[in-house]
Amino acid sequence: MIGLAASRALRDLFSPPFRAAFWKSLGLTALVLVGLWFAVEALFERVAAPWAAGWLPALPAWASDAERAAGWLAGLLLAIALAFLIGPVSAAIAGLFLDDVAEVVERECYPEAPPGRELPLAASLRLSAKFLGVIVLGNLLAFALLLVPVVNLVAFFAVNSYLLGREYFEFAAMRYRTEHDAKALRRRHRGTVLAGGAVVACFLAVPVVNLLTPLVAAALMVNLHQLVSRREGGLPAPPVERRIAAAGPRSD
């Protein structure tokens, strides 16, 4: 099941809709990071530099060189910080386009199934924030354990397999189910979801390729949700349709 879901996700990754979602998310990520660069640079020039100027003249003659070196060092640290933020920021922004990805997978691979429903804007924003938190946590964990061989690798894959599998599977399931039902389905198939999360974690571990992580994760988990639902007897009607059905036919 994992192999089938992964192969379908990789196949869809090169389709025009996926490329469009990738370039949109990457473009917005670049705009955010460039804006952040200028904002931090302005903060350094208007706050940090004037503050330092108050005590630098009291230093020896090399103070001006030290100030210049500090500026270069600040720029280097900022560049490293922005490189670290590429993955998390792209994950958060790509979260806004995941419904587009899910719709393509459902339409192309499962035409016989009822179409899912886009998440409300508030839920979509909340999921994007959660995706951001998941990626940040995984990267911080890897950084904290950088000097501990083997342990850092095991911890990185264990944590990210669980978190990525959980969040993206529940996203796919919530296109057809309530949040409570999506969580219950994920718990019933926790081993399968964890294995799917491990595949996603492999993408997260590769620089540059990790920019594709949100799209790969969404496509893989949409496929996995469809396959798991088939095993359980089929997909339910999306939540909106279930509420309409429960209300019964209207009487004039």
TrEMBL record:
The keyword Membrane applies. InterPro entries: CysZ/EI24 (IPR059112). This is Sulfate transporter family protein. It is found in: Membrane. Signal peptide: none annotated. It comes from Plantimonas leprariae. Pfam families: EI24 (PF07264). Keywords: Membrane, Transmembrane, Transmembrane helix. It is a multi-pass membrane protein. It comes from the Bacteria. The keyword Plastid does not apply. The chain crosses the membrane at residues 21-40, 72-98, 131-159, 193-222.
